[in-house]
Structures are given as C-alpha cells and as structure tokens.
C-alpha cells in the first residue's frame, strides 16, 4: 500500500505553468496507468492553453473560483465542480477569484511533460 501526504510532496511547475504536487503516479507508487496531483493557480493567474494527445484528465475544484475553456466551450467553475477533459482537446484554466484556485487533477495515462502541447505563446 502506498500512502502519500500532500504536505510532504515537493511542488514543481508543469509545462503549462501550473504549480503541482504529484500525489500518486508510477514515479512514486505502485500506480502504473494514471496519476493524481494537486494543482494551484495563483490569484490573477492562468495555465497556458494546451492539450494532451494521449492523456485524458479530470479536474476537481477544491478551493477558489475560476473559468475554464475546453475546446470552444467556456464555463465558470468553483468548489465541487468536476471537469472532464478528453485527450486531444485544448484547454485553459483561469483563476478569477480573490484566493488561490486549487484542484485535483487525475490523468490517465499518468501526466508527462512530453504529452503536453502548448497552443499559445
């Protein structure tokens, strides 16, 4: 059994500019086909628009409010919202609130920088 505590995981910046803490993935556990991470978007910040050719994602908002664009659809998001992002679909997340936007990000297969294609400069 692998148990990881968020407060003990080092933060790093992904290719899209998100600050994440990877909780479980093949890099640190017995999990082989997916990953779970917490991501944080600072006040006034956003991710760079991007897509993943192979990976589908689920974002689950745990704190804050924001706005997300998946493909051409734009929606407001907040605590308790789960967002499905299919593989190959461009997406971008903005923090529109007064606090850090925090979310859990599930990726299948596991997140990899080399499966992240940035679509904006």
Account of the protein in words:
With 121 residues, the protein is mainly β. The chain has one domain (14-112): Jelly Rolls. It has no helices and eleven strands. The chain has strands at 12-13, 19-24, 35-41, 50-51, 56-63, 65-70, 73-78, 82-85, 91-95, 101-108, 117-118. The protein has a six-stranded antiparallel sheet, with no helix packed on it. A three-stranded antiparallel sheet has the order 7-6-9, with no helix packed on it. Strands 4-11 form a two-stranded antiparallel sheet. The model has no long low-confidence stretch (mean pLDDT 96).
How would you summarize the topology of this molecule?
Layout (H helix, E strand, L loop, with lengths): L11 E2 L5 E6 L10 E7 L8 E2 L4 E8 L1 E6 L2 E6 L3 E4 L5 E5 L5 E8 L8 E2 L3
Antiparallel strand pairs: 1-2, 2-3, 3-10, 4-11, 5-8, 5-10, 6-7, 6-9
Tell me the strand percentage band.
Answer: over 45%
> Which CATH class is shown?
Mainly Beta
Radius of gyration: 14 Å
The overall average pLDDT, rounded, is 96
Order of strands in the sheet with most strands: 1-2-3-10-5-8
Write out key terms for the chains shown:
121 residues, mainly beta, Jelly Rolls, 0% helix, globular
Write a short abstract of this structure.
The protein is mostly beta strands.
């Amino acid at each position: 059994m692998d148990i990881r505590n968020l407060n003990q995981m080092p933060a790093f910046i992904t290719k899209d500019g998100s600050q994440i803490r990877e909780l479980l993935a093949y890099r640190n556990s017995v999990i082989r086909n997916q990953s779970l991470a917490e991501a944080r978007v600072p006040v006034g910040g956003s991710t760079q628009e991007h897509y993943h050719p192979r990976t589908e994602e689920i974002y689950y908002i745990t704190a804050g409010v924001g706005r997300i664009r998946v493909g051409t659809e734009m929606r407001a998001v907040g605590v308790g919202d789960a967002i499905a992002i299919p593989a190959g679909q461009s997406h971008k997340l903005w923090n529109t609130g007064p606090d850090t936007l925090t979310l859990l990000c599930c990726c299948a297969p596991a997140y990899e920088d080399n499966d992240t294609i940035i679509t904006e400069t």
